[in-house]
């Protein structure tokens, strides 16, 4: 199984400041034949299902604000919120779709400082 | 815009079988572009993928649950379903159904293969509590 480990578990950031969440996979999720990283990011607010933010590690889903960006390759990935807004308070998950079992990180709880 | 809706009992007794159905609207489970999954989330905890099914009936299960899980598709009703047997309190969770798109890639032998994408969209989820 590919183990996904996020850091930190919890993060408090002031409004307007940058938030950075890291995700590390236990093995590479970069597929050489197409040079794509099989990594997605989700945002989950209380009482709601996860919402897709980023796929292929850095492609923003349609309708997602451009303050959200994804980067990284291989085993190390980052979700960055460039200027934190109040509505960004949520739990964030990374997920690999490189191989089954499909696995998620443990989640990062993002709060306002 | 495709929509997914989970349904089923909210309370299941220990040792019994949990049965859930996901109804797909404004989309088709027979569409060969998509895979259909179940994912669960225990209260206050993280996400665990349970299984997926392709319209052909091809399935893939999380090894941690494989001995107890069955996923199936009913194209006539545009639904797919989950059965989890011999449940315990550890199976108490919000169960989500979700769709994954697909893409082709070339495997190490140079053969073109179809595989799944990320999960999108998700249903709203249904809480199943295992308790006597």
Count the DSSP helices of chain B: 0
> Which sheet architecture does the biggest sheet of chain A show?
7 strands, mixed
Biggest interface reads: A-B, 24 and 27 residues
User: Biggest β-sheet of chain B, characterized?
Assistant: 7 strands, mixed
What is the end-to-end distance of chain A? 36 Å
- Helix proportion of residues of chain A, in percent? under 10%
So how many helices of chain A?
A: 0
Catalogue the unreliable spans of chain B: none
Strand content of chain B: over 45%
Quaternary form: heterodimer
Mean pLDDT reading of chain A: 97
Shape of chain B: globular
**Radius of gyration of chain A in whole Å, from Cα?**
13 Å
Measured distance between first and last alpha carbons of chain B: 39 Å
- The secondary structure category of chain B is mainly beta
What would your notes on this structure say?
The complex is a heterodimer of chains A (113) and B (132). With 113 residues, chain A is mainly β. Helix content of chain A is 0%, strand content 51%. In chain A, strands 2, 6, 7, 8, 11, 12 and 13 form a seven-stranded mixed β-sheet that branches. In chain A, strands 1-3-10-9 form a four-stranded antiparallel β-sheet, with no helix packed on it. A two-stranded antiparallel ribbon of chain A has the order 4-5. The mean pLDDT of chain A is 97. Chain B contains no helices and eleven strands. Helices cover 0% and strands 56% of the residues of chain B. Chain B starts with a strand and ends with a strand. In chain B, the strands form two sheets. In chain B, strands 2, 4, 5, 6, 9, 10 and 11 form a seven-stranded mixed β-sheet that branches. Chain B has 132 residues and is mostly beta strands. Classes of the chains: A mainly beta (113), B mainly beta (132).
